[in-house]
Amino acid sequence: MMEPGAYPARYWHRIADGRIQCDLCPRDCKLHEGQRGACFVRMRERDQIILTTYGRSSGFCIDPIEKKPLNHFYPGSSVLSFGTAGCNLACKFCQNWDISKSRDMDRLMDLASPEAIAEAAQQHGCRSVAFTYNDPVIFAEYAMDVADACHARDIQTVAVTAGYMHEQARRDFYCKMDAANVDLEAFTDDFYFKLTGSHLQPVLDTLVYLRNETTVWFEITTLLIPGHNDSDEEITAMCRWIMKELGPDVPWHFSAFHPDHKMPDIPATPASTLIRARNIAMKEGLHFVYTGNVRHQEGDTTYCPGCHAALIERDWYQIQQYRLTPAGCCPVCGSAVAGRFAAQAGSFGRKRIPIAIGGR
Predict the structure, then answer these.
(1) How many Cβ atoms sit within 10 Å of the Cβ of residue 225?
(2) Does any domain span residue 348?
(3) Among 180, 57, 71, 168, which Cα is nearest to 120's?
(4) pLDDT mean across residues, the chain
(5) Count of domains forming the chain
């Protein structure tokens, strides 16, 4: 491993005018010597692109897996979570903007090799490691090396991401991941362009790729922003696309926006909006639809897709009842529930535990 912070990046090529183009994501940043990409962490140096945040983190915490959010990936288990800095999107509504928009590399004070992270996850009894807080796409080389170290210890890996990647990087990245939560921010390119500085189609491509060409377990999150992506028409269009392209078993989380970053004047999303969206999605045929950032027992509960019995009851991130059979089926009617399940739910609960990992 090189010194933390300077690591040769993959996914770039030289172009005719002397610049180097980054091929990681559809931004296609074209860089002169010393320039950084839009993500701020990939930089041209000595006629190559380097990842400036390899081995450096904005912090480590042990979380419940439901906080990612993943409700069908070993419920109740603990996950070691970490991120770096920067992002390849420019979301005006970013809820983690202090990390994702940070250009202060000195804030990345926690240094850890991939092996140290995997060892810490094992020592703390974590079933998985999550790349989160900022988008792991931009630190893909670091995330993939951590994933290799985790898999050597039988620890699973989780990507929490906006899904904005080019095809080759997508293939390399997801062959290292066991689960993902992908943000589907809206269902119009106008929203993506004006509020995130990106485009919708690459995100849809990622979701279709995950469904058709991988065994990665994935769930979707949509942050509903009043007046921007919360209309019945847009939610219905998203539902119908998901049903057609991904099927009824992909879990979908509707999450509440709170005023932040560049949208401080937009009101917080009321619980009624999330409940309305959930009702639309269920009516359109989706089996597993959840509400996030609000207390809503029905929206926290996993129901059987066959007989609609309550199978996993939650209070926020705490598992209250777990009625799945060891094979992941409903004990009432025998219907299989899509996901990755253990014979029993984990008991980590809703706590969040910051930890320190020594670099080496």
Answers:
(1) 23
(2) yes
(3) 57
(4) 93
(5) 2
Instruction: Measure the CA–CA gap between 223 and 69, rounded to whole angstroms.
Output: 12
Q: What is the pLDDT of residues 285-301, one digit of tens each?
A: 999 999 998 889 999 99
Give Cβ neighbours of residue 145 (< 8 Å, ≥ 6 apart).
114
Residue of 117, 10, 8 lying closest to 56 (CA atoms): 117
pLDDT tens for residues 205-244?
999 999 999 999 999 999 999 999 999 999 999 999 999 9
Tokens read off for 146: 């951590």
Taking CA atoms, 20 is separated from 87, 141, 144, 164, 307, in Å, by: 19, 18, 23, 20, 56
Sign of CA dihedral 289, 338, 317, 161: negative
CA distance 90 to 101: 8
d(CA 286, CA 221): 14
The DSSP bridge partners found for residue 292 are 255
Residues 202, 103 share a domain: yes
Please check whether residue 184 is in contact with residue 238, taking contact to mean a CB–CB distance below 8 angstroms.
Answer: yes
Do 197 and 342 belong to one domain? yes
Distance of alpha carbon 177 from alpha carbon 261, whole angstroms = 30
Instruction: In whole angstroms, give the CA distance from residue 302 to residue 248.
Output: 14
Pairwise CA distance, residues 63 & 355, whole Å: 11
Element at 253 (helix H, strand E) = strand 252-256
b/e map of 321-355 (b: 16 or more CB within 10 Å)? ebebeeebbbeeeeeebbbbbeeebbebeeeeeeb
Q: Are strands 252-256 and 289-292 parallel, antiparallel or unpaired?
A: parallel
Number of residues written out for the chain = 360
Q: Is 144 left (phi over 0), alpha (psi -120 to 50) or beta?
A: alpha
Sheet holding 310-315, edge to edge: 302-303, 310-315, 318-322
Domain residues for the domain of 35 are: 7-51
Q: Specify the pLDDT at position 16.
A: 96
Asked whether the CA dihedral 277, 280, 281, 287 is positive or negative, the reply is positive
